[in-house]
Design brief:
Helices cover 65% and strands 6% of the residues. It is mainly α and 110 residues long. The protein has a three-stranded antiparallel beta sheet.
């Protein structure tokens, strides 16, 4: 899944939820379930997601929503194949970004 967010240091949970097409509660639930998600919190307790958090969320989204893994299955997949899973997913993300750019170019030509 290609996420189109502006380049920033921190993203609020609402921005992240909108980019993924999920509810903020869904992301908070995944934060509790997956140890890899550790967004920073400000003094008010608002979650602030970094680029690394977004990358981890994309991997979780890919496994759970696109591949159909259960939460337990996604956790075990991430633990057993952490290097190869992330490497393969990085390639998929780059290809999806290229695809989105090509679609934009096609739409501009038409």
């Amino acid at each position: 899944m290609y996420i189109d967010l502006p380049e920033k240091r921190y993203y609020k949970i609402g921005e992240v939820a909108k980019a993924f097409g999920l509810n903020a509660s869904h992301i908070r639930f995944w934060e509790k379930e997956f140890d890899i998600l550790k967004p920073k919190k400000n003094k008010k307790g608002n979650r602030l997601f970094t680029q690394e958090d977004l990358k981890n969320l994309q991997l979780i989204y890919h496994l759970v929503k696109e591949k159909g893994f259960t939460l337990e299955g996604a956790k075990s997949k991430m633990k057993e194949n952490s290097k190869s899973t992330e490497g393969n997913y990085d390639i998929i993300l780059r290809l999806e970004k290229i695809k989105a750019e090509l679609i934009n170019i096609k739409n501009e030509i038409s």
